Every structure is written in structure tokens, then in C-alpha cells.
TrEMBL record:
Signal sequence segment: 1-23
Sequence segments annotated as region (Disordered): 60-92
Keywords linked to the UniProt accession: Coiled coil, Signal
High-level lineage: Bacteria, Pseudomonadati, Pseudomonadota, Betaproteobacteria, Nitrosomonadales
Segments of skewed composition (Polar residues): 60-75
Biased segments, Basic and acidic residues type: 80-92
Protein name per its UniProtKB record: DUF4124 domain-containing protein
Length: 168
């Protein structure tokens, strides 16, 4: 209880003396059953969090529709970007994504080539050097690592293509 009160007093003091630090504050219960205070980023580490202080000055991520079903107004001082600037940003983003995609494809081709060669060597070793199981195990480990790299590059390529398709 004393720990909770001291934490609460620290929280109140921080709210008074640091007006530039904005965040929603939650009262939560940790795994040991003790009360803890967390911001919106850290509240997921706790259970039974209840909002005790709302920061109305920071932007809140919403769908643009308030609870009563009406669309929320954009603040007057919200930054506006002209179409030319946005188009330039989109083009730059596309170029960056395309460069990343090309890099991933090259890396995939390199790993695939190495994997194919090592697969042939492993088959040869299994057929001719059965007396050296340590080397065969080493080849198998290397092949598994390469297969994991191939899967990672394929997944990255898939995600980059999806992202590129979404902005075209």
C-alpha cells in the first residue's frame, strides 16, 4: 500500500511539474497483484488497466468517426501537404521499395545458388562418405540454415511486392 501511495505521489508530482510530458495514464495490476501505473505504450504488460488520466492534447488514433457516429473535424493547425509534394514522397518511397525488392531478389538468387550446390555436395557425400557422419550433419545444418534464409528472402519479397502494389 505504501508503495502504491508513493508511486501515486510521484505520478501527481510529475503531472504538476512536467506539463510538456503528455500521455494517457492507466492504473494497472501487475503479475504479483500490486498496483502499477503505466502509459498507453506500456499498459499491455499489465492486466486490468483502467484509464485514470486522459491527455486530450495529443492526437488520438481513431477511424475519423466519433462515438456518436459523426465524423471528427480535422484540427485547423493540422499540417497540409500539397499533391506535388505527396507525389514526390510517394515516388521516392516506390524507388526505395523497388531497390529493396531488387536487393532481396539478388540475395535470394545467391542463397538459392549456394543451396543448390551444397545440396548436390550433400547427396554426393551421403553416397560416398557414409563413414563421416559429422560432415554429413554439418552439411545438413548448413542446408537447413540456407533453407531458412531462402524462406526469409521469399517472405520479404512477398511483403515488398504487396507494399509496392498498394501504392501504385
Amino acid at each position: 500500500m505504501k508503495k502504491s501511495l508513493s508511486a501515486l505521489s510521484v505520478l501527481i508530482t510529475a503531472c504538476i511539474y512536467i506539463p510538456s510530458a503528455y500521455a494517457d495514464i492507466y492504473s494497472c495490476v501487475d503479475d504479483k497483484g500490486q498496483t502499477a501505473f503505466a502509459d498507453s505504450k506500456n499498459k499491455i504488460a499489465y492486466k486490468n488497466c483502467k484509464l485514470i488520466m486522459r491527455d486530450d492534447s495529443s492526437p488520438v488514433a481513431t477511424s475519423g468517426i466519433s462515438n456518436n457516429g459523426t465524423k471528427t473535424a480535422t484540427p485547423i493547425n493540422f499540417p497540409r501537404i500539397d499533391k506535388k509534394t505527396q507525389s514526390q514522397r510517394d515516388d521516392k518511397r516506390k524507388d526505395i521499395l523497388q531497390t529493396e525488392l531488387d536487393t532481396e531478389k539478388k540475395a535470394l538468387a545467391d542463397v538459392q545458388k549456394s543451396y543448390d550446390q551444397d545440396s548436390k555436395n550433400a547427396v554426393f557425400m551421403r553416397a560416398n562418405n557414409i563413414k563421416e557422419p559429422a560432415k554429413i550433419a554439418q552439411f545438413d545444418d548448413n542446408l537447413k540454415r540456407q533453407q531458412d534464409e531462402i524462406n526469409t528472402h521469399q517472405q520479404n519479397i512477398k511483403l515488398l511486392q504487396k507494399e509496392l502494389n498498394s501504392i501504385q
